[in-house]
Amino acid sequence: MSETSDHPSGRASFDDGRYLYCLVGLDGEDRRTNQFARGVDGGRPYLVSEERVGAVVQHCECQFDSDRPETVKEWLLQHQTVVDEAGQVFGTPLPFRFDTVLTGDDNKVRDWLAEESSTLLNALNELEGLWEYRIELVWNLERQNDEVEDNERLAAIREQRDNTSAGKAHLLQKEYERRQARLAERRRQDVICNLQERLAELVQEVHSVDRSRAPALTDRQSGSDEARHMTAILASTQHEANIGEYLDTITSKPGLAVRFTGPWPPYSFAPTIGQDQ
Amino acid sequence: MRPTRSDDAAVDLVDVILREGVVVEADVVIRVADVALVGVRLRAAVAGMATMTRYGYFEEWDTEGTRNRGSTGGT
Description:
The complex is a heterodimer. In chain A, 40% of the residues lie in helices and 26% in strands. Chain A contains 7 helices and 11 strands. Chain A has helices at 69-90, 106-115, 117-127, 141-148, 152-162, 166-202, 240-250, and strands spanning 4-6, 12-25, 46-50, 53-62, 94-95, 100-103, 131-140, 205-208, 226-235, 256-264, 272-273. Chain B is mainly alpha-helical. Chain B has one domain. Chain B has 4 helices and 2 strands. The longest helix of chain B is centred in the first third of the chain and has 13 residues, at 7-19. Mean pLDDT of chain B is 56; it is low at 33-40 and 50-75. Chains A and B meet through strand 2, helix 1, strand 5, strand 6 and strand 7 of A and helix 1, strand 1, strand 2, helix 2 and helix 3 of B.
């Protein structure tokens, strides 16, 4: 194993390492030696294979870290482009999280592939032919508030508020807003539950994306006038049309917009490997 | 509707690549981009990307990604 140390920039550095893009499944007689696009930071990605599993890697001697958004953007673009290419050639890849590095040379990669071959093959088989799609629901809160105004209880409070003293009207207005917000939230949850129940009938796997896990990263934060919810699904491209048809029925709801993106490599459905070791 | 890989969608993917993907628990692997471990400089840079995207920085990515995806198991 290569020794790791602190790079003057603060990054971990090592004698020899392999930046990991993704894992791919290889057919028994597969001898494709794919030429990949330029990799992260100008590196040259290539395939290291061991039996029926391949790892797309590139040589590196330190972590990637930068405070320049343009640089990071370029690295992420390069990472994703290489993973996309691997997917085109070998089918659904198992994508690594950005900046995952194995310390050591190609033989070390092969040793690791051999050691974990059973786990890796199972994971590749489970994801074969499946891709990640993401469905974002965006509510316009003002329009949603308008929509719930016909609620009987809200109407009663409104009437009370409009026929009482200024002081009491203020308290009733606060209660009105609280109930309005609760009602709108309940309706949003109903939409999300219905969406995920319907999707579960159509696709392999469904889960909500917890955007609070990385508040400092790129998640678009909901403005005060909107609410957002993201669902990630694992599905075959053959199911895109059925999913799209169902989403069309949701977009007819006032004040609700739907974004349907993909297919992406199954980043959100990739396993943890070697956890019990 | 059909799924897209628009430049706006790329913002989500940036976050996904940083937060998700195969996680390896092994002595030989350095997993830098775990949210808890990612460098402060990298985190700060990425935080600025949402703004960049509004000005079209990801258009090239989208175009290239769509082209690459063209024959990848499409319907």
